[in-house]
Amino acid sequence: MIRLANVCKVYDGKYALHDVSLTIKKGETLAVIGGSGSGKSTLLQLLVGLIRPDSGEIYIGGQETTHLSEKELDRVRLNMGMVFQYSALFDSMTVGENVAFGLREHKNLSEDEVQRIIREKLALVGLPGVENKMPGELSGGMKKRVGLARAIAIEPEIIFYDEPSSGLDPITTAKIDELIVDMQKKLGVTSVVVTHDMASACRIADRIAMVYEGELIAVDTVTRFQRIEDERVQAFFRTLRPETAERDDQQV
Ligand SMILES: Nc1ncnc2c1ncn2[C@@H]1O[C@H](COP(=O)(O)OP(=O)(O)OP(=O)(O)O)[C@@H](O)[C@H]1O
Ligand SMILES: [Mg+2]
């Protein structure tokens, strides 16, 4: 479904991503972890075609996308939904108009049908009835979920999530995780989820990929990933065991 071959992206003479090769199967959920500035958002932006690599190839559903025109890319994007790290809603539009944005751009639907989809997707992300509010009236977490409703409104085959639950409380985070799993189970969606949250990665993903300073240093199934002995990988797993850390503290 998605394949990167030797992809490099340079910013200001420095590699944001270096020689990344990766294949993601249809219906798979891949979690991408890595520290701040490691290149995770850059990876997603390359996959949706918001930026282009300096070298390497990107295939989406068999189509090589790095040399496509904007117009041709638009057609590929019809199959992709993106949940941005900073919800990226249009502040001058109502929540409902935001959710319907892609639908109105790309699909020829009746107004009734558009309204039905808006209600359905908002309910799905746990925000029924907010369609007439303005984004400014919502909390950060609610905005995130509206961004998610917008991404799934066009019912894409592939969804990219950039930190879908950062800054959300644990219960809302669990709900978003559940939604990601549901999208895969019910609709067979292929997902790439960037997250800082190792617990969340383990709950939702078939495989985990780790980016470290622009390099893809490990990709494996959740169980096998936990056994990778690389210190950079293990450092992430330690974040899962705060209770151990607390006990150590008490002994001191
Ligand atoms: N538009 C840009 N112009 C210049 N440098 C950029 C740009 N976007 C990203 N970078 C640089 O590329 C590197 C990777 O950034 P990226 O946003 O992909 O990191 P990230 O893993 O998503 O980090 P975070 O977890 O903080 O969101 C960083 O060093 C960043 O400064
Ligand atoms: Mg980022």
What tags apply to this protein structure?
4-stranded antiparallel β-sheet; binds adenosine-5'-triphosphate; 10 strands; binds magnesium ion; alpha/beta; Rossmann fold; 252 residues; 6-stranded mixed β-sheet; globular
Descriptive overview:
The structure is a single chain. This protein has ten helices and ten strands. With 252 residues, the chain is of the alpha/beta class. It has a single domain, classed as 3-Layer(aba) Sandwich (Rossmann fold). Helix 3 crosses helix 4 and helix 4 crosses helix 5. The structure holds adenosine-5'-triphosphate and magnesium ion (MG). Magnesium ion binds next to helix 1.
- Count of helix runs: 10
Measured between the Cα atoms of the first and last residue, the distance is: 51 Å
Low-pLDDT segments, ≥5 res:
244-248
Helix-residue proportion: 40-55%
Strand content range: 15-25%
Major sheet details:
6 strands, mixed
Condensed summary:
The chain is an alpha/beta fold. The chain contains ten helices and ten strands. It has a single domain (27-37, 70-205, 216-251), classed as Rossmann fold (3-Layer(aba) Sandwich).
Layout of helices and strands:
Layout (H helix, E strand, L loop, with lengths): L1 E10 L2 E11 L4 E5 L6 H9 L6 E6 L2 E2 L5 H8 L2 E4 L11 H12 L4 H14 L15 H14 L4 E5 L7 H18 L2 E5 L3 H7 L2 E6 L2 E7 H5 L4 H8 L3 H10 L1
Parallel strand pairs: 3-8, 3-9, 6-7, 7-8
Antiparallel strand pairs: 1-2, 1-4, 4-5, 9-10
